[in-house]
Design brief:
With 377 residues, the chain is mainly beta. It is 5% helix and 38% strand. It has one helix and 36 strands. The strands form eleven sheets. A four-stranded antiparallel β-sheet has the order 3-36-35-34, with no helix packed on it. Strand 26 and strand 27 form a beta hairpin. The longest helix has 19 residues. The N and C termini lie far apart (47 Å).
Length: 377
């Protein structure tokens, strides 16, 4: 009889514990609790250093799971043509045996359907570059391809559904309205319709309908709140709804619900004008609406945002702590762990196993870093 009473008491305790425990679900080998949207297992920690300090570089996931790191700079005027590869299996960076044909910073890198990587534009020793080259992961070789119609720095390059690449805006003495299309089949760039306004340091996001949302940017010190859509079928840009505030040096990416998250940036005063605010673009309505603020005002984060496999968003640049946006609750939270400094013009790359590699960037003293970090969920 006493054993039966003890068993009933144990069951009651277990039932109470179950009822008082937040509802949780398995997400990528971790557990996310529904009561407050937190994830106690998510954290960022240092990994092995790159072979050189870099900011304004690119980081591209390759088919074999490694990450291609190209160019960037140690400081103004000290640009790199060197390339390194990060291997998630060993957690190490190795200097690639071949370098790019040109030193580049503020350039773009896009992995094409044939798995080659198109690297274009940026600044080099001679100024703004129009040249482009292809990296072949199978051989490790860089080969020149067709050049753009004009030199471009701080522009966007977007892979379209047809395998071509839209290159838009950028800077060459002024903010550019022009855009062009790279065709991997011919290796050439050809002009397409012009944007309604000159834009540099803007964002470009491919929408599910095949159009590309171009948001913000503008000229130095004079960012725009406007946005426009590029239609690959007609080759034209049309204005869409405007953001709530002018932004440049911000971040943007497509969410699982087919809306676009826009985060941070600056109002043109750079360090004094950094935003913590964020907004959502709804393609069905063509409008932007405000969403909860980040915990830290951030800018120079264009390449430092990543969509996680659980549908949440990592924002790694512009602050010592990483923030996570949860589309379900429309809130931001900070992840466990810190980087050594607030990193600007760093990169965040989603790895095949769901982790995120964060590399380089420069600190408040304009010193580029060779350090790298891994975010785990």
């Amino acid at each position: 009889m006493q054993q039966a009473k003890n068993l009933k008491g144990l069951l009651a305790v277990l039932l109470l514990a179950i009822l008082s425990t937040p509802s949780c679900r398995a997400v990528s080998r971790a557990t996310t609790c529904e009561n407050d949207g937190s994830n106690e297992t998510s954290s960022i920690s240092a990994t092995n250093n790159m072979t050189a300090p870099r900011s304004g570089h690119t980081a591209t996931l390759l088919p074999d799971g490694r990450v291609l790191i190209t160019g960037g700079m140690e400081r103004n005027g000290a640009f790199y043509s060197s390339v390194e590869l990060y291997d998630p299996a060993t957690g190490k960076f190795t200097l690639a045996p071949k370098s790019m044909n040109m030193k580049r910073v503020g350039h773009t890198a896009v992995r094409l359907p044939n798995n080659k990587v198109l690297i274009a534009g940026g600044w080099g020793e001679s100024g703004v570059l129009a040249s482009a080259e292809l990296y072949d992961p199978a051989t490790g070789e860089f080969t020149p391809t067709g050049s753009m119609s004009t030199g471009r720095g701080d522009f966007t390059a977007t892979l379209l559904p047809n395998g071509r690449v839209l290159v838009a805006g950028g800077e060459n003495g002024k903010a550019l309205e022009s855009a062009e299309i790279y065709d991997p089949a011919s290796g050439n760039f050809t002009p397409t319709g012009e944007m309604r306004e000159g834009r540099t340091m803007h964002t470009a996001v491919l929408l599910p309908n095949g159009k590309v949302l171009i948001a913000g940017g503008g000229d130095y010190r004079h960012p725009l709140a406007t946005a426009e859509l590029y239609d690959p079928q007609s080759g034209t840009f049309t204005l869409t709804g405007s953001m709530s505030v002018p932004r440049y040096k911000h971040g943007a990416l497509l969410l699982p619900d087919r809306t676009v998250l826009v985060v941070g940036g600056s109002d043109g005063r750079d360090w004094q004008g950094r935003y913590a605010s964020a907004e959502i673009y709804n393609p069905a309505k063509g409008t932007f609406s405000a969403v909860g603020n980040m915990n830290t005002a951030r800018f120079k984060v264009t390449e430092a945002v990543a969509l996680l496999k659980n549908g949440q968003v990592l924002i790694a640049g512009g602050g010592e702590q990483v923030e996570i946006y949860d589309p379900g609750t429309r809130t931001f939270r900070t992840a466990t762990g810190r980087m050594d400094a607030a990193r600007f013009y760093s990169t965040a790359t989603l790895l095949a196993d769901g982790r995120v590699l964060v590399t380089g960037g420069y600190d408040d003293h304009s010193l580029a870093s060779a350090r790298a970090w891994i975010y785990r969920i």
